[in-house]
Amino acid sequence: MFVSVVVDPGGNESARNLQEILASHGFERVQRACWESPVVSETELQKLKQDIDSVTDYYDVVRMYQFPVDDVFAITTMYKKKWRRIVVRPPNKTQ
Length: 95
Fold this sequence. Notes:
Layout: E1 2-8, H1 12-24, E2 28-31, E3 34-37, H2 42-55, E4 61-69, E5 72-79, E6 82-88
Antiparallel strand pairs: 1-3, 1-4, 2-3, 4-5, 5-6
Helix pairs in contact: 1-2
């Protein structure tokens, strides 16, 4: 799946740690706070989330844009050390 990760670190140490983790997982930096990888498996994604959890604190925010996840678009956010997922489904077409 394609995964884009946007980071908003709470401090310089968190920023460095997140950069190292994303680079070690094969992500490429495409903008100052945005990293992307076109080939991430579900298991690799779970490992990435665990690694991110281990180096972040309460003030860091990480958002992941994932496609496809069960054929839909998903946005996973870590905010205040809690992960939440929003699934965006296409609108129902009724005629």
